[in-house]
Amino acid sequence: MIPEGLIHAAEILQSAQRVVVSTGAGMSRESGIPTFRDAQEGLWARFNPEELATERGFRTAPARVWGWYAHRRRAIMSCEPHPGHGALVALERLLPELVVVTQNIDGLHQASGSADVIELHGSIRRSKCLDHGHPFAGAFDEEIAGGEDAEQDPPPCPDCGSPLRPDVVWFGEMLPAAATTRAREFAEQCDVMLVVGTSGMVWPAAELPFVAERSGACIIEINPDPSEITRIADVFLQGRAGEVLPALVQALNVLRH
Ligand code: NAD
After folding, report:
1. CB-based contact 13:234 (threshold 8 Å)
2. Superfamily of domain 1-32+81-121+175-257
């Protein structure tokens, strides 16, 4: 038997015209990528974000920061999308319009085939130059296979010679303007926002469900634990993305037949 909450969520989705899926680090957890909270107990407990995730830190010790991100990039590139990512692709095919707005920098939504993904915090798969922001999407064949402490000089930008840095949003930096504007417009105009795997503590991304709710959208949340978003959720589906999302697609398919 399909649980009542899943049926309710599927009914809401069935009558929706425009759906926004807002994902956070929990969406990638079952692919083997730690969430921010995991990271606080692990990475950020051992490394200082001021040194590794700020422009000042990069300018002070570029080889340290580039080496750390090279290690993280290799780890992320070896991860695969899980059934929850696949379920979002299936959902996109079942509904008139669906866009994914993600805080994740791992590129797993695109890797699984989601067609329209707005990246609020950039992507670790891309780089850009420090001084002019020239984009660089090439691979780094020369990367050493060092650990997270291994220093490595950042390659120069092919256009201007300035050092390359990861194209992710660091502490103290603005989010990419085009992505933010588009995400906010979708939040204002959607009928349903499906919020998956975010604590709702990192702003301005955390504001999007509140914008959607104020604009009259239904909020469906998927998370193993209550979050800052849960109090405005019309339906809270407690559980993991990799289990609940496929079950939601199955419930929608049952309703449609
Ligand atoms: P967060 O770490 O603050 O919160 C993660 C949320 O995911 C929690 O509410 C947790 O209960 C939930 N969760 C854990 N396992 C889950 C699962 N299997 N299924 C569904 N939910 C699960 O994450 P956040 O709100 O996205 O904020 C973290 C910030 O750090 C973001 O800015 C993000 O860019 C960055 N970050 C990104 C990645 C990534 O790209 N994969 C990883 C870590 C951090």
Report:
1. no
2. TPP-binding domain (3.40.50.1220)
